[in-house]
Specification:
With 336 residues, this protein is mainly beta. It has two helices and 28 strands. It has one domain: 7 Propeller (Methylamine Dehydrogenase, Chain H), CATH 2.130.10.10.
């Protein structure tokens, strides 16, 4: 009787934990060579064009590409590196995106943006950045790389010119009134979205001007994810909340859900209509379902690790979660 009473009390205090108490999510460890002692992970990405998980491996100076079907791993080297693990992102690479057969990688140690041939891994163009960066995302319609530079409260736009002599050239700076947190590109609505403290903003991809802003209902706004087809923007609140806003209906909030605190980067699997949240504070992975009407519900939860703050899903129903302290990845199968 006492045991059931304890569970009942836990359910009242923490309904998220109680709902996911029996989780079917199990992890397997994916070792990153050179990651012993930790890696300053920050951004994992998935390329639907290359069908590879993209893993910028911090101070190792390497970008790893993982095949989600057979889990083979290749790496591209040549970035700044250190034999000693750096706290945070002080050296090496931590953010990557892909477009039209080119990988765009930010290098902290050199404060530069590199363009790599996605097949060979050779660097085909480089540009100095105005400031150290956080996230980068590629806009294929304008062939521009958007780089958030929170220390200067700005986003830097780098123009990419393909061809026989590819180039990366600094184009302009978008000055903001607060530090940009995360960034996603919406080709359908010609917008880029980022969080500025308690507000979400939309920036026009053509004019590079802020064209909309609204309350994101967060005390500590963190990562974004997008269902571009439906026009739903998912926002993570660091205090422990998932939200979804309707970009086609005056950015109105459709639904929200309390999660574990310490959320940072999030990921959305459009095929499954699942959003992935990790808690670096509580060391958990949460899989959140999105109904046809945009209502959020917790489907399952699993153990991750302390500081597991970055996550990405692929098209093979795998969920990849970073484990910065151990310099490895945790892989889960999403059969929920």
């Amino acid at each position: 009787m006492k045991f059931y009473l304890i569970l009942f009390i836990i359910a009242l205090i923490n309904p998220v934990f109680a709902e996911a108490f029996e989780s079917s999510l199990k992890s397997t460890t994916v070792v990153i060579p050179g990651g012993e002692g930790g890696i300053g992970f920050d951004d994992l990405n998935y390329s639907s064009e290359l069908h590879k998980v993209l893993v910028p491996a911090g101070h190792t100076g390497k970008l790893y590409l993982i095949n989600p079907v057979n889990f083979t791993m290749t790496s591209f080297a040549g970035f700044s590196s250190s034999a000693v693990r750096q706290k945070g992102q002080k050296i090496g690479i931590s953010s990557v995106d892909e477009g039209n057969g080119v990988l765009f990688v930010g290098d902290h140690g050199r404060t530069e943006l590199d363009a790599l041939d996605a097949k060979s891994g050779s660097v085909i163009a480089t540009a100095d950045l105005a400031e150290d960066f956080d996230f980068l995302r590629y806009d294929p319609s304008h062939q521009e790389v958007w780089v958030t530079e929170p220390d200067k409260k700005q986003i830097e736009i780098i123009k990419f010119t393909p061809g026989d002599h590819p180039r990366l050239v600094a184009k302009m700076i978008i000055s903001l009134h607060d530090e940009p947190e995360s960034i996603v590109i919406d080709q359908t609505r010609h917008r880029a979205y980022t969080n500025l403290g308690p507000k979400a903003i939309a920036i026009d991809l053509e004019s590079h001007t802020v064209v909309d802003s609204w309350s994101n209902e967060c005390t500590k706004s963190r990562g974004d994810a997008l269902d571009e087809q439906k026009g739903w923007l998912f926002i993570a609140c660091g205090e422990g909340k998932a939200e979804v806003f309707d970009l086609n209906n005056e950015n109105k909030e459709i639904s929200n859900l309390i999660t574990d605190p310490g959320v940072d980067v999030i990921s959305y699997n459009q095929k499954l209509s699942h959003v992935y949240f990790t808690s670096g504070k509580n060391a958990t992975l949460s899989v959140i379902g999105v109904s046809a009407q945009g209502k959020l519900s917790l489907l399952g939860q699993a153990s991750a690790d302390k500081r597991s703050h970055c996550v990405v899903g692929d098209d093979q129903k795998n969920i990849w979660v970073c484990d910065p302290l151990k310099g490895q990845l945790l892989r889960y199968k999403d059969n929920l």
